[in-house]
# Entry
Amino acid sequence: MREIEFRAWDGRRFHYLGNADFILDYTGIAVFREFGGIKEKPEWKLTQYTGLKDKHGVEIYEGDILNIGEEGYAKPETVVFENGAFGINASWIDCSEDTFVELNKYCNFIFINCVEIIGNIYENPVLTERQE
# Structure
């Protein structure tokens, strides 16, 4: 069983968090434990570790932008969490629309050599723009 890990984007940088560093209130807002009490930080964006690593051994989190495919053919895709699974909405599978692909189903085949983190949606939003 893997440990559940999170990071939070505060608008400037990421904070890597353990399970005991925050709780979610009934509205889904993260409430952080700090010295001297707790504090709501609704502007912070929480992202969860997928349990997978890219070809360089870097942990992949929700919101990361991955280059997927062999060099020269790689396509940037954003990691999302949908229907209880981490995946990507891969436009290259079905040209007419995005197709949700669970990451862990392709872990043994693709992730060995063909996936690299190239950024994330917070620090590098321009990478999410589709190339025509």
Notes: The two ends are 41 Å apart (CA to CA). The chain has a mean pLDDT of 79.
